[in-house]
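Job type: complex structure
Entries:
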Amino acid sequence: MKNKILPGVLLAALAATTAQAHFQLLYTPEAALKESAAVPLALVFSHPFDSGFTMDMGKPEAFYVISQRGDAAPKTTDLMQYLEPIKWAGADSKGAAYIAHPPRSVTRSLGDYTYVLRPAPYYEKSEDKYIQQITKTMVNIGGLPGGWDEPLKLPVEIVPLDKPYANWVGGVFRAVVMSGGKPVPHAEIEIEYLNHEPQIDARQFDPAAKATAPQESFSTLSIRADAMGQVIIGLPKAGWWGICALNLDDHLKYKGKELSLDAVLWVKATDMSR
Amino acid sequence: MKRRTLALLLLPLALAAGMVAHAHNAICSCFENDDGTVTCEGGFSDGGKAVGVPLQVLDQAGKVLVEGVMDKESSFKFNRPKVAFRVKFNAGEGHIITIDGRDIEK
């Protein structure tokens, strides 16, 4: 672990001018729906704070939703059939991405819906390695909770300790980084605010930013999990916040190259208003 | 785990008390199935089940068309009436939810 960190820090220092975090988006506009509705989704691999370079996604290895109403048995619905390949526009580039419009019947019941995306590994030329970010986004219908706090037995994942869809602005969000079902002490974490709201119909990020970073360190917030693998982040602004735990499995290879297996969780913060 | 144990402990109590023991919000939602039946699902905002909660389907005059209780899956299924109707989910005082049939879609 320690050996890994040092070269990482050096590389990051060398690349300081272009330091941006890759983030797998699994976006839907609303996280907490009052009642059942069709949930549209956008799957984009990008740099969400500055709407920077949009990377080409390959066909996902898996895309499904696990739903649970109260403590009834969880149900898995495969969503691969709803994937529609598109070109998604960021501020200065277009990249291969996907949108999906599963029908209302998929989200007809009350409860928690955890969308899971296992994208194809992405070859990052500048680092000569592959990146694969297993991503979760949660939606709740009707206020009846389900299995939001349960690990989903993914190879790597960020398991919430707070409901990712029910957070006030100004609150904190807690989660545990897991690899192979075990917490990852001191895991390397990146946090980014989804600063350019995705516009699914227009297949682009809103060109207007919601916030400005005073300096590069603020675009991607880099933190560490604690000794128990727990992460706590503040939520200072309404919208989606991405948490990414990097390189959770040290020895993975893909096509003869290093594979960074990352876990992403999206959290929504909501303004208190009248 | 803890929640499940608690629910198991509370369930008989809640049933004995006619489902008024919950200090949480009642939630009920209905949708139409492909075969023309309607399914209503219930529960509580703490994730609690609505097993045994009575449910009535009423016409505009308030006449009972169908009635029953939520099953072990906290749901209740009935044939969609030909006339205008509303669904009344009755989990006790302060926990009554009425849904207009016109709002029940596929």
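Summary: Confidence is low (pLDDT under 50) at residues 5-22 of chain B. Strands of chain B lie at 26-32, 37-44, 54-59, 64-69, 75-79, 85-90, 96-100.
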